[in-house]
Amino acid sequence: MPQPRYREDLVRAEILALAGSQPLNRSQIAARLGLGAATVSDHTRRLIELGFMRELPPQVSGPGRPRVPLEVVADAAHTLGLRVHPDHLVGVVMRLDGSEVRRFKLPFSPADDPVDQLASACEPVLEDSRVRAVGLALPGLIDPFAGTVRLSPRLGWTDLPLLPLLAARLPVPVLIDNDTRASTTAELLFGAGREHDDFLVLAIGDGVGMGIVLGRRVHRGPDGVAGEFGHVPIGPGGPTCVCGRRGCLDAYVADYALAAEARARGLTSTQVPDLVRLAAEDAPGIRDLLAETGAILGRAVAGVANVLAVRAMTVIGESHVLWPYLAPGFHSVSDDGILPGLDIAVRPWDDSGHALGAASLVLAASVVS
């Protein structure tokens, strides 16, 4: 299918996300999103025409015109999000209000034909005509504008024009982006964005990523590769990163780096669940390791937060369960480096998180409507 140029237009998506939690009238929507009444009226009229919203009976309270609440018709359209992992795919079908219809998991081999595997995963889902578009969330340097995977060490791909190839196989629009930025879009629509216009999303797991929201827009940079926080240099001559360089933040904080350091210190831990269990038991050395790692992470985050003047951050990713043990070290340095402080929320996380982000990405890019 011919693809629209990547164009993020969040207004309709934000209206759907905001009114999806409870019916709101146009004035309430305008006040929360900082939009003019005419803009809200134009967008809600279009959403009603599409069948995505409907008017409820007017509410009369005092003098003046009655307020007309608007309700999201959540099942009027769905989006499909896929998270691409080095050994599996996770798919989530999402309603217009951000709720999940269903999820699935399939094996995946990046060394085999990725287009055929991805198309085969999507095609049965697209038999439901309510699924209007597909979003893909991938690790690495992703150019969402060109639809190219510029570099993904974990998948072993370089300069792969994934979107054009996949779009030729599917009958609906397709978008791709870095997995952390995709999840940052979900956080803007359905999470921290309901309270903050500017915030960070810190993703910790098999890598370290950062999503940046400024003025209610996800920052991607001119070539779409902003947010590679894990490759910020921390120390010359430090551990080797998966990118091949030494001393990247990833090489200190990512789960493979923590496991390697635990082994180097003679601690019997190779997986994040082991670290959580041993930290909870206060096994010798584990809490010290995690506090030191948290301090490294805190110094790096403090620099970004100070430069961008953001005051909120959400922690996501497979290693979010380590946060109680990373936090003491993190706060020991970040609280001294950030004024007047950073409001931190930790989101429950599982393997479907980035897939839900990919589904949100499609909703935010106006390819559904």
Note down, in words, how this protein is organized.
With 369 residues, the chain is of the alpha/beta class. The chain folds into three domains: 10-74, Winged helix-like DNA-binding domain superfamily/Winged helix DNA-binding domain (Arc Repressor Mutant, subunit A, Orthogonal Bundle); 76-185 and 353-364, 2-Layer Sandwich (Nucleotidyltransferase, domain 5); 196-346, 2-Layer Sandwich (Nucleotidyltransferase, domain 5). Helix content is 36%, strand content 21%. It contains twelve helices and 15 strands. It has helices at residues 10-21, 26-33, 37-50, 114-122, 162-167, 179-190, 250-253, 255-264, 272-280, 286-308, 323-337, 353-364, and strands at 53-55, 70-72, 78-84, 88-95, 100-107, 131-138, 141-143, 148-152, 157-160, 174-178, 199-204, 208-214, 217-218, 312-316, 343-346. Strands 5-4-3-6-10 form a five-stranded mixed sheet, sandwiched between helices. Strands 13-12-11-14-15 form a five-stranded mixed sheet, with helices on one face. Strand 7 and strand 8 (148-152) form a beta hairpin. Helix 2 (26-33) crosses helix 3 (37-50), helix 6 (179-190) packs across helix 12 and helix 10 (286-308) packs across helix 11. The longest helix is centred in the C-terminal third of the chain and has 23 residues, at 286-308. It is globular, with a radius of gyration of 21 Å. It starts with 9 loop residues before the first helix and ends in a 5-residue tail after the last helix.
